[in-house]
Amino acid sequence: MRLILLGAPGAGKGTQANYIKEKFGIPQISTGDMLRAAVKAGSPLGVEAKRYMDAGELVPDALIINLVKERLLEADCKNGYLFDGFPRTLPQAEAMKEAGVAIDYVLEIDVPFDEIIVRMSGRRTHPQSGRTYHVKFNPPKVEGQDDVTGEPLIQREDDKEETVKKRLDVYVAQTKPLVDYYQQWAQRGVENGLSAPQYRRISGLGSVDEIRQRVFDALK
Ligand code: AP5
Ligand code: ZN
C-alpha cells in the first residue's frame, strides 16, 4: 500500500495515519514530524526550517524533496509508505512523479475550517512519536501524558490561532491545487510509467473512530 493523505492542517491526517500504518504495516512519512525532529536536534535543516514553520509558511521545496527522497531509500519503505503532509505543492508532487515514486491512493480528509480552528486549539502532541491528542475530543488516558510512553505532551508552537489562520491560507493557495492535479492525472492514466493513483475523498467530520472506519472503507 502506497498512499498520500491529503487535507488541511488539523484535518486529522496524523491521527488517522497512526491507524493506517498499523493496519498495513507501512511507515508513516510525515514531513512535519521529520522537520520538527530536525528543529529539535538543531541540525542545519532544522535551523533553516524553523523560521518558516513558526511563521506558518511552507519550507522550500528543494529541502523537502531531498528529505523525502532520502527517506524513501530506507529499507522499511520497500513494501509501501504513507505520506502525511507531503506533497503539499505542485513542484513536490511533480518531483515524485519524475522520480518514479508510485502511489496507489490519494485520500483526502475534508474538514471545514471553523472546526479546524477548534481542533488545533485543543491539540496536544507527543513530540518523540508524533502521536496527537485533543484535550476534549481525543484525550490521553492520563492528562498531559502520552498513552504509550507516559512522557509529557506539549502544545505545538504553530498552533497559536494567528499561525493556524496563516497555515489555512497557505493550504488554500499552495496545497489545494493538488486536489485537481491528482484528479486530472486519474483521468489521463499512466504517466512516466506510473499508474495514476485512485482518488478518494472522505468527510473528516465525526468521531475519530467513525473516520477511521471511513478511511478503511475508502482503501478497500
Ligand atoms: P505538518 O506537521 O504537516 O502540519 P499540518 O499539515 O499543518 O497538519 P497538522 O499536523 O497540523 O494536522 P493533522 O491533519 O495531522 O491533524 P491531527 O491528526 O494532528 O506541518 C507543519 C509545518 O511544517 C508546516 O506548516 C510547514 O512549515 C512544514 N512542512 C511540513 N511538511 C511540509 C512540506 N511537505 N512542504 C513544505 N513545508 C512543510 O489532528 C488535529 C487535532 O484534531 C488533534 O488535536 C486531534 O486529536 C484532533 N482530532 C483529530 N481527529 C478528530 C476528530 N475526528 N474529531 C475531533 N478532533 C479530532
Ligand atoms: Zn500532522
Automatic annotation (TrEMBL):
Catalytic reaction equation(s): AMP + ATP = 2 ADP
UniProt comment concerning the protein's domains: Consists of three domains, a large central CORE domain and two small peripheral domains, NMPbind and LID, which undergo movements during catalysis. The LID domain closes over the site of phosphoryl transfer upon ATP binding. Assembling and dissambling the active center during each catalytic cycle provides an effective means to prevent ATP hydrolysis.
PROSITE patterns associated with the record: ADENYLATE_KINASE (PS00113)
Localization, UniProt: Cytoplasm
One of the protein's GO biological processes: AMP salvage
Residue segments, region Disordered: 128-148
Annotated pathway: Purine metabolism; AMP biosynthesis via salvage pathway; AMP from ADP: step 1/1
Spans annotated as NMP: 30-59
Higher taxonomy: Bacteria, Pseudomonadati, Pseudomonadota, Betaproteobacteria, Burkholderiales
Binding-site residues for ATP, renumbered to this chain: 10-15, 123, 132-133, 206
Name this protein carries in UniProt: Adenylate kinase
Function: Catalyzes the reversible transfer of the terminal phosphate group between ATP and AMP. Plays an important role in cellular energy homeostasis and in adenine nucleotide metabolism.
Provenance organism: Trinickia dinghuensis
Subunit structure: Monomer.
Adenylate kinase active site lid domain segment(s): 123-158
Annotated spans, LID: 122-159
GO cellular component, as recorded: cytoplasm
EC numbers, comma separated: 2.7.4.3
Family, similarity comment: Belongs to the adenylate kinase family.
Record-level Gene Ontology MF annotations: AMP kinase activity; ATP binding
Key words, A-Z: ATP-binding, Cytoplasm, Kinase, Nucleotide biosynthesis, Nucleotide-binding, Transferase
InterPro entries (UniProt xref): Adenyl_kin_sub, Adenylat/UMP-CMP_kin, Adenylat_kinase_CS, Adenylate_kinase_lid-dom, P-loop_NTPase
